[in-house]
Amino acid sequence: MQTAIQLILTSLQIGAVYILFSLGLTLIFGVMRIVNFAHGHLFAVSALVVASTVPWLVGAGFPILSAYLLGAVAGVAVALAVGLVMYVGGFRFFQRDLVGSFILSIGLVLLLDGVLLRTFGGAVRPVPDIIPGTVTVLGAAITSQRLALCVAAIAVTGLLYWALTHTKLGKALRAVSIDHEAAMLQGIPYNRMALAGFMIATVLAALAGVLIAPVTIVSPAIGADYLIKGFIAVIVGGLGSVPGAILGGLFVAAIETVGGFYFDPSSATIAIFVLVIAVLLVRPKGLLGHG
């Protein structure tokens, strides 16, 4: 029983980051009908800024929590700036163009790989513990830091879901994702919604990077692994479906955790791909996909 609870807690902690990451991917696809392979670099640049800023601020005499919060603000701000440049300089010209956006995003991946490596170097960057201690839940142990990560990710996910269902902007984004031409006929400015959707997705990726930085080793290559897992999550859940992204993120995290515990990480990765194929054979549009 204790082992099962421990696996559930670990799955929730890993899945929380996957959910935030994949929500950005599914939001971009739903609104703009594009696939952004450079999404992982928005995640990476945020984590790298946090990993670079926090030790420097701590060395300057700031308390660890204050240093982390300042680093988080800086990380999100830099990611937003990069995301805005990506949209204005590229993706706004390829809206609802899967082939064009695919080629553009691959080019951005190569460009940003070089920029991040040049700026931050290739060395890994650990972040000091922000919240020390361990919490016991029904006999299973989880670090306070990972528990805080999970709670923060759940709060952000809940806030996004509420905003999409109860605010004017959220309803406009949903309308555009369902039928952008009909939405435009109702007076919804599509270009403005596309920009809003892209920037919200950027914030989600940046927050995921901020939350994961203290519990992992950060390097310029960190975004690649999360990009693959994020795409698997949205494909399993259904491209363009917010509940599908949440379900897909938990699906991937559960397989990764259970497979890694009973077998090894390589077997868990193989199991993820095998089960994805099985799901898509039964539900080609994903578990909660439409059309």
Question: Short summary of the structure?
Answer:
The protein has helices at 2-32, 39-59, 64-89, 98-120, 144-166, 168-178, 180-185, 190-212, 222-237, 242-262, 265-282; strands at 134-137, 140-143. It is mainly α and 291 residues long. It has a two-stranded antiparallel sheet.
How would you describe this protein?
There is one protein chain. 44% of the residues are buried. The protein is mostly helical. The longest helix is centred in the N-terminal third of the chain and has 31 residues, at 2-32. The termini are far apart. A two-stranded antiparallel sheet has the order 1-2. Helix 1 (2-32) packs antiparallel against helix 10 (242-262), helix 3 (64-89) runs antiparallel to helix 8 and helix 9 crosses helix 10. It has helices spanning 2-32, 39-59, 64-89, 98-120, 144-166, 168-178, 180-185, 190-212, 222-237, 242-262, 265-282, and strands at residues 134-137, 140-143.
